Amino acid sequence: MDTLFFIGVMILSGFIGGKISNRFKFPAVVGYLIAGLILGPSFLNFLNLSLLNSLGIFNDIALALVAFIIGSEMRLGVLRKMGKGIITIILSESFGAFLLVFIGVYLLTHKLYVALIFGAMAPASAPAGTAVVLQEYKAKGPLTDALYAVVGLDDGLAIMIYAFAAALAKLSIMDSGDSLLHFLKGPIIEIVGAISVGTLVGILLGYTLRKLRNKKEVLSISLAGVMICTGVAKYFHFSLILANLTVGMVFANLYLFANRRSMETISFISLPIYTIFFVIAGAHLQIKLLPTMGVLGILYIICRSLGLIGGASIGATISGAAPVIRKYLGLGILSQAGVAIGLAIMATREFTFMGESGKTLALMVINTIAATTIVFEVIGPIATKFAIRKAGEIGKSKSRI
């Protein structure tokens, strides 16, 4: 059957799964993942591994759009109002999650490369999961402002952490005579290159769109900019996520009104792309491996949660943030989805061909992160609602864009 047939089935099954998930008060993304799980090799094998590998372009497009949208929320004016303290909080919660997961996984597996990769997965959050709850309950206040900033910026930091952790993991697996500096050159070039490409595309995109008003034209040029950035980043082996994150941030800060028009048009076509992305991610989950991943998955959930909550509290205390931020910020950033799955898929691609150790690591990462994502996407929104309710910020705003 033609690939387009499978794509159509994925969109339809994901849509149905999302609706069923919403009926049970769960986020739609849970339904997308479960739909993929059922269609994948673990059950029906309708989406076999060969087909999944051929659909990698949808992962790239979805990750590019997610990164672009996140970057578009990072306006410097809002960040300045929050002060330098927000940077302290982001660093503290991100590295807190990384360190606790790294230590926990290393004590369990006694393998440095496994601990590094799982630690690098921990800081990534799901901005959409948090933002939807804040908008649904019309939240407003210091905690809400902090949540919007943190869930946007910590994904950019997570990408950087992963780049360096992956380099160290490769050094550990290969056990070659090359120096650490040799392996770190790659991440440094990747980060600088991605930011440079994203900055250039962001400036050009904003300059082109600033006089356009027709929504169809705005959508066409916006997608062209994102895809060109993605293509250039992949050609030079830069991070497509960091590159498009930079595009969105530069675009939003230099051409605010054009950026808003772009976001409005992209929202019309993003749902089917995200649906395919999460269905593919769910299909990668292999149930037969979960019994051996059980302890690792539980450990990851516990260590990541404690790292984020504890790290956010420590960072807020050091920076002198408001009491509600110290107490409840960590609870509002537990959701984990798109970026984490994207990094897991990236790790699968990078490590599968690095011998038996690399292949085992790839399977561990994709299965554990796909499984724990379902848990975090369920408890994350619930924890966010609890946090803003305890902070007394529910119903304080008429609307939030």
Note the topology.
Elements: H1 3-23, H2 28-39, H3 49-54, H4 56-72, H5 76-82, H6 85-109, H7 112-121, H8 127-136, H9 142-174, H10 180-209, H11 215-235, H12 240-254, H13 256-283, H14 290-318, H15 323-328, H16 338-351, H17 355-390
Helix pairs in contact: 1-2, 1-13, 2-13, 4-12, 4-13, 6-7, 6-9, 6-14, 7-9, 8-9, 8-17, 9-10, 9-16, 10-11, 10-12, 11-12, 11-13, 12-13, 14-17, 16-17
Structural summary, described in words:
With 401 residues, the protein is mainly alpha-helical. It has one domain: Na+/H+ antiporter like fold. Helices cover 80% and strands 0% of the residues. The protein contains 17 helices and no strands. Helix 14 packs across helix 17. The chain is globular and about 50 Å long. The termini are far apart. The relative contact order is 0.18. The model has no long low-confidence stretch (mean pLDDT 83).
- Ends: how far apart? 42 Å
- Uncertain stretches of 5 or more adjacent residues: none
Largest sheet at a glance?
A: none
Classification by helices and strands:
mainly alpha
Instruction: Write down the oligomeric state.
Output: single chain
Tally of discrete structural domains: 1
The beta-strand count equals 0
Strand content: under 5%
Report the top-level CATH class: Mainly Alpha
CATH topology: Na+/H+ antiporter like fold
Order of helices and strands: HHHHHHHHHHHHHHHHH
Rg over C-alpha atoms, rounded to the nearest angstrom: 20 Å
Q: Looking at the structure, what is the overall shape?
A: globular
Tally of helical runs? 17
Give the helix level as a range of percent: over 70%
CATH architecture: Up-down Bundle
